[in-house]
């Protein structure tokens, strides 16, 4: 089988080119074709010699993903794309028009794994179970394909699709670096967010390696017994330890860490607000609230009135909050709704 060319960093392509007697600046030209110009065929690379184009076509593949299905929300213009990998797994990417138009902030939510092993009670992806880690090329190609299919250039990326990014650390960070790179997608580091359910080792490594991307951590409960029930990861990596890690190690010069919090009927009480306040004594974090989306879980969605009450409490306590809209819920494209639907009708 051919290798996927998007698995290679610029440095690696330079070495590949040197090995076949090509000038190393050709590597930047290749990156420009792949990411800026978004071609899916080596023969379109017209500033390369015929020999080089043939060589590349013989050895490498550009696009590892095939589009299977596409849906658009009539409510907010959010689009969901279902792709098939070369070995028959299904993954999803979501294109979000943050203010409902083609201008302004355009976000692509990418998947980092086919399925997910974390087993969160509220999330549809967990129901699929874990298939495998995505390669760097498969992460990047989601952006290539969504840009080609929508004809729009996103300026924001969130690793909040299927999977736990920090269980696929190397491939995820390599993809983020290529997204950021001038000759890659050229997306600013502040517009790339990696979200984890709380993998202690991954967070520590991310900090130690001084990775410049935004970090988000899914908290979802303030009572840690309850958290362990909804998010098995709590048993292995208690949130308390993660907050302490941030306190000790997360540089003050950096963007605050986002703490994501799904609002259910049973986690937005006065006590929850109090516990959040204690947690927010560490002031390098901000809270991102999202109402629970529908799914196969049997958890209860709070009323708007209950949500407003909780928000009011947090505001009085001076906790920095933002509220996430559930983009694409009518197409099962919102947080926690990515189930790679074709799984149910397929044997793999
Ligand atoms: N595994 C990583 C990346 C996935 S991000 C992580 O957990 O952070 C997916 C986000 O959607 C997480 O913040 C998760 O808590 C949230 N989510 C999952 N199911 C949801 C649901 N039913 N309603 C609202 N948010 C949900």
Q: How is this structure best described in words?
A:
With 348 residues, the chain is of the alpha/beta class. The protein is 34% helix and 19% strand. The protein has twelve helices and 14 strands. The strands form three sheets. A ten-stranded mixed beta sheet has the order 3-4-5-6-9-10-11-12-13-14, covered by helices on one side. Strand 12, helix 11 (270-279) and strand 13 form a beta-alpha-beta unit. Helix 5 packs across helix 6. It is globular. The site of S-adenosyl-L-homocysteine has 17 residues, from strand 10 and strand 12.
Characteristics of this structure?
TIM Barrel, 14 strands, 2 domains, 348 residues, 12 helices, alpha/beta, DNA polymerase, domain 1, 34% helix, ten-stranded mixed β-sheet, two-stranded parallel sheet, binds S-adenosyl-L-homocysteine
Write the layout of secondary structure elements.
Blueprint: E1 3-4, H1 10-19, H2 25-36, H3 50-59, E2 60-61, E3 66-72, E4 79-84, E5 90-97, E6 106-109, E7 113-115, H4 124-128, E8 130-133, H5 136-150, E9 156-159, H6 169-180, E10 192-196, H7 200-208, E11 214-218, H8 224-230, H9 233-236, H10 239-249, E12 257-263, H11 270-279, E13 285-291, H12 304-316, E14 321-323
Parallel strand pairs: 1-2, 6-9, 9-10, 10-11, 11-12, 12-13, 13-14
Antiparallel strand pairs: 3-4, 4-5, 5-6, 7-8
Helix pairs in contact: 1-2, 5-6, 7-10
This protein binds S-adenosyl-L-homocysteine.
Short overview:
The protein is an alpha/beta fold and 348 residues long.
Radius of gyration: 21 Å
Shape: globular
> Which residues form runs of ≥5 with pLDDT under 50?
343-348
CATH superfamily annotation of the largest domain: Aldolase class I
Strand-and-helix sequence, N→C?
A: EHHHEEEEEEHEHEHEHEHHHEHEHE
| Residue share in helix | 25-40%
Structural class: alpha/beta
Number of domains: 2
Bound molecules: S-adenosyl-L-homocysteine
**Mean pLDDT rating:** 95
Strand content: 15-25%
Biggest sheet record? 10 strands, mixed
Q: How many DSSP helices?
A: 12
According to CATH, what is the class of the largest domain?
Alpha Beta
Distance between the amino and carboxyl termini: 21 Å
Subunit arrangement of the protein = single chain
Number of strands: 14
CATH topology of the largest domain: TIM Barrel
- CATH second-level architecture of the largest domain: Alpha-Beta Barrel
Which strand order do you get reading across the main beta sheet? 3-4-5-6-9-10-11-12-13-14
């Amino acid at each position: 089988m051919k290798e996927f060319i998007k698995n290679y960093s610029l440095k690696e392509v330079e070495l590949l080119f040197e090995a076949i007697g090509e000038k190393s600046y050709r590597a930047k030209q290749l990156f420009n074709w792949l990411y800026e110009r978004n071609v899916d065929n080596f023969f379109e690379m017209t500033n390369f010699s015929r020999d080089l184009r043939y060589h590349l076509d013989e050895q490498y593949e550009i696009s590892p993903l095939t589009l299977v299905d596409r849906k658009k929300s009539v409510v907010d213009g959010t689009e969901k794309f279902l792709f098939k990998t070369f070995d028959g797994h299904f993954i999803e990417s979501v294109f979000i028009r943050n203010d409902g138009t083609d201008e302004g902030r355009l976000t692509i939510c990418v998947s980092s794994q086919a399925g997910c092993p974390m087993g969160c009670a509220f999330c549809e992806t967990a129901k699929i179970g874990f298939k495998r880690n995505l390669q760097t090329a498969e992460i990047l190609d989601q952006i290539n394909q969504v840009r080609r299919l929508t004809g729009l250039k996103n300026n924001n990326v969130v690793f909040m699709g299927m999977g736990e990014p920090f269980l696929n650390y190397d491939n995820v960070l390599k993809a983020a670096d290529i997204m950021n790179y001038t000759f890659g997608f050229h997306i600013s580091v502040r517009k790339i967010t990696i979200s984890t359910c709380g993998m202690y080792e991954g967070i520590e490594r991310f900090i130690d390696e001084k990775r410049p991307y935004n970090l988000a951590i899914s908290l979802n409960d303030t009572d840690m017994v309850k958290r362990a029930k909804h998010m098995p990861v709590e048993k292995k990596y208690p949130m308390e330890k993660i907050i302490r890690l941030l306190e000790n190690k997360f540089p003050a010069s950096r963007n605050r860490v986002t703490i994501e919090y799904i609002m259910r009927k049973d986690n937005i009480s006065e006590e929850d607000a109090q516990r959040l306040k204690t947690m927010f004594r560490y002031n390098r974090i901000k809270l991102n609230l999202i109402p629970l989306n529908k799914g196969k879980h049997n958890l209860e969605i709070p009323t708007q009135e209950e949500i407003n009450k909780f928000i009011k409490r947090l505001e009085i306590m001076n906790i920095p909050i933002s509220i996430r809209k559930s983009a694409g819920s009518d197409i099962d494209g919102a947080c926690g709704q990515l189930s790679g639907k074709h799984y149910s009708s397929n044997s793999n």
